[in-house]
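Prompt: I keep going back and forth on a fold encoding question. Comparing notes only helps if you start from a blank page. Show me how you would write down a chain together with its backbone fold. Please set it down just below, with no commentary around it:
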Amino acid sequence: MRSFVLGLLAAAIISSPCAAATRASSDAIVARLQNGDGVEWGDILELGRRGDPKVRPFLVGIGEKYVSELRRRIRKVSPESEAVNEESFRDIEVPIELYAKKAAARLGEKKYFDYFVAGLSSKDDEYRLDCIETLKYIGDRAAIKHLIPLLEDSRIPVGKEGRILDGSPPFSGYAALALAEFIPKGEVPPALKGFYEADKWRPAIKQWWKSNKGKYGRLEFGKEKIFEVPVVQ
């Protein structure tokens, strides 16, 4: 349950900019990251929101460090294992490196977009929910075709302890709310008011997909965002 709470906190941070990060310059945030000095999740995600391409290589480097650290931990626990089972270590802490992957994907790093798309099929329900929220943060309409199948997933997410997450709607509800962000305004009924309206809205989404699959089913990453890309001075 602790990791689910962390996930909800992370989703809130993804949805709303960090005030401290907004005040700081991008260079100042990068400097703090390099020094390991007082960096928060919101700082990393704010770099992605600002749309400054010059910080992307820096964020990619942090993301690669995350993967390397996971491999190091796995070899320490099981030296003979060649498999990199990232899910085994994801809930130890929420590492800064993981948020660097999210920000880099928003700035156009396709391999990290693909990383979170792959997470939609994870056996870790809490991580699947985080990947849905992360795709909303990345804001690329290439995610639509990957979210559509989740409309058929009526299962309630289960926490690490094997208990159903209290008050959680089915995955279809999370997917419907995400798709409400991705589908262009005016092309479907008004946006959902809550998770539990997913079943009411699902037929409209399916009809929209039937008419628009030709376009969005082939849409490549980086071609269409749900937000206006900032002009970097």
User: Anything to note?
Assistant: Residues 1-22 have pLDDT under 50 and may be disordered. The CA atoms of residues 3 and 91 lie 6 Å apart. Residues 139-226 form one domain. The radius of gyration is 18 Å.
